[in-house]
UniProtKB/TrEMBL annotation:
Signal peptide residue numbers: 1-19
CDD domains the record matches: PBP2_Arg_Lys_His
Keywords: Signal
GO cellular component terms given for this protein: cell envelope
Organism of origin: Shewanella halifaxensis (strain HAW-EB4)
Compartment(s) where it occurs, according to its Swiss-Prot or TrEMBL record: Cell envelope
InterPro entries referenced in this protein's UniProt entry, alphabetically: SBP_3_CS, Solute-binding_3/MltF_N
Domain called Solute-binding protein family 3/N-terminal: residue spans: 28-245
Record protein name field: Extracellular solute-binding protein family 3
Source lineage: Bacteria, Pseudomonadati, Pseudomonadota, Gammaproteobacteria, Alteromonadales
Family membership: Belongs to the bacterial solute-binding protein 3 family.
Amino acid sequence: MKKSVLVLASLGLTGALMLTGCGKSDDVLVVGTNASFPPFEYVGGASGDEIMGFDIDLARQIAKDAGKTLKVENMNFDSLIVALNAGKVDFIASGMTITPERQASVNFSEPYYEATQMVLVNKDNNSINSLDDLKDKHIAVQLGSTGDIMAKSYSQQVTAFNSGFEAVMELKNAKVDLVLFDSEPAISFLEKNPQLKMVELDFSPEFYGFAVAKDKVELLNSINTSLSTMKQNGGYDAIVNKHMK
Ligand code: ARG
């Protein structure tokens, strides 16, 4: 008698553990992001601590189409792929550029946004007019971003920060010569920092995709189906108009 109670109790415990296991349930889709990348993802809203933006709206529709609710996990940009492959998040929506290096460890959805790198400098700096001018400059970037990788190909002096905000602070304090960052967030930082200006150089286009673990083929298909439906029914354009100027 005692024994069976014990067995049942331990079964109950295992069951409970299995259910709560990794903090995920079947009706929740967990998206990983780094919310320091306006207008794609940032912290704001009435409460001041809501994670919102272009990617989050797309991700919410993706979850809705899959009959699930969206849960957002905010983390450092360079932790996202590790978290994805550890099963901590189901997909990444973080303005992540599709690159062959990343494609070695994750699958990407169809591209959903075209961007490019942009240079931010203090207004009085007229020394950057071509890619060649970057080579003797001190560049601030976001750790693990394409800007980080690219900056290192131009200059020996690159300092990487956990967020674009921190890189911009460093520029405003004249600790670096420029920030190399994606175009839309660069524009968004510019609006809040009138002492800065943007310099457009000849960088190649980049395409953002949602990242999914290699073995989650069904999820990848459902993300792609949601994206193409949104592109056809005007949902995508509405989200663009809501977030982009
Ligand atoms: N597009 C760049 C990359 O993929 C930067 C993305 C940064 N995203 C973010 N949410 N902080 O590396």
